[in-house]
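--- STAGE predict ---
source: upstream dedup step, 1 unique chain passed
mode: sequence only
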Amino acid sequence: MAERNRRLLVRRRPDGLPVTQDFELVEVPIPKPHDRAILVRNHFCSLDPAIRGWLEDVPSYMPPIALNDPVRAITVGRVVTSRHPDFQTGDWVVGLNAIEDYSIAAPDAFLRIV
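--- STAGE serialize ---
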């Protein structure tokens, strides 16, 4: 397993079309799952038009992504470490997550892919 976790952060609100300067790719330590959580290695993320709306600081069906928080998206990944009885290491899962290499998640935020 890699020693660092790449994470895409929102640094400023886009004015019109998003540009590179609106984001920052940072490296942070890989998180460790707490009790009843899973560590997911994200393999794919869906770059949907809805993300653009989440970058605005306006009320919507989803709260806006806060500045300095990771961009969120639907991701598909594999469980690396499970501290929950319903998920096993190696399970493939899908859910709303952060755009980053590794994510800690509550199991109710993910669905196992059969």
